[in-house]
Amino acid sequence: MKRSGSIVIEQPAGAVFAFLAAVGNETSWRDSVTGSGYVGGGAAAAGTAGYTEVSMGGKQVRMDWRIRSFEPGRHVSWQLTGGPWRGGGAYTVRPLNDGTEVTADLEVRLSGALRLLEPVLGFQLGRGLRADLARLRRLLVVPAN
Question: What is the mean pLDDT of residues 78-98?
Fold first, then answer.
């Protein structure tokens, strides 16, 4: 299951990327995320390990991951290394004349009998991604006075 979404945020690209790279910020804009961080207090870089804890159906699930690629100010991608499924994702930030375009890509791979749930879970993944990006935009856009 692959899902992608983009939004435009009226903030400088550097500030938007810095917010995304501080993985602990996920709890403020990703609805199901209850905790997230870099293992050992590290910083974002290729090879850095991290974790994300999500609430799913009243249960806490921990997903471990490792940053695959990191281009400061522009792009970060990660690969899941532990948890109930496989996959990964990426955030790409692109400066625009009047703001920043953020593209989020997610991939979740199920195995065995769980593959039968992919149509329903794929729909929920896409809907959740769109809602999370909308929250990110609302959080980062400062209203004009």
Answer: 89
